Amino acid sequence: MDQRMAAGFAPAAPPAVRMENHGPTMARVAMHSGSDLFARTGSMVAYEGFIQYESNPTALRQAVAGRLSGESVPLMKCQGDGVLYLADYGADVVCLPLANEGLSVNASNVLAFDAHLEWGVQRVKGVAKFAGQGLFNLGISGAGWVAVTSRGIPVVIDCAQAGETYVDPDALVAWSTGLDMRAKRSFKASSLIGRGSGEAFQLAFSGRGFVIVQPSEDSTDRLTAQPQN
User: Fold this and answer.
1) Which residues form the domain of 120?
2) Total count of domains within the chain
3) Please, where are the H alpha helices in 163-206?
4) Is the pLDDT of residue 225 over 50?
5) What Pfam families does the database record attribute to this sequence (predicted)?
């Protein structure tokens, strides 16, 4: 290869933290012995060093249990020493450090998270009476790293500064579980806010924490993730 062609694509510097972006659509994870990772099945695009992958029985049992609620997450367990690169069909990636806090994530937006974190399928309360159906997310909590995807460049809203924030449920990626949340119907019943929601209602967030919103309102994303062996 002509060195001039590769001049702008020099090898990346060693990771500065456990998990970080390598460009807008890829996560780079520093892997070490004993620091296992759960990642979406099929999300590995490259790795350096010695890294192994396996379907984790405990993770898959939780994923299968999620099918009862309409949400499931196909996960693989990654372990070893090296650098792991993850992506999801060109979706934008956001890497988030959790400091003994909780995050509620749309299951189809989960890319990876530290295996020592607590996690499980959770029902979002107070939504069914407005949407006509329940909303189920993946709850992740503890101290560690999480990577989520977004269909397009997301906006991360700090609710402590923005005040009460209103979001179309079908564009919602994740939010801090410490936020206060309520469902709000639009004033005009004939209006339609959110192409995929099927009703004129939003979720209102307030308090200390953040909300991640993607520029997509495809409600089918919530039902596509299925467990794989």
Assistant:
1) 15-218
2) 1
3) none
4) no
5) AIM24
Using a cut of 0.90, tell me whether the model's pTM lies above it: no
Tokens 């993946």 belong to residue: 138
DSSP bridge partners of 96: 146
Query: Helix and strand tally (H, E) in the chain?
Result: 4, 15
C-alpha dihedral over 50, 55, 58, 63, to 10 degrees? 130
Mapping DSSP to helix (H, G, I), strand (E, B) and coil, where does residue 63 land? helix
Name the strand (E) or helix (H) holding 5.
helix 3-6
- Specify whether the CB–CB gap between 172 and 203 falls below 8 A: yes
226 inside domain? no
Taking only the tens place, the pLDDT of each residue in 95-135 is 999 999 999 998 889 999 999 999 988 877 656 555 544 56
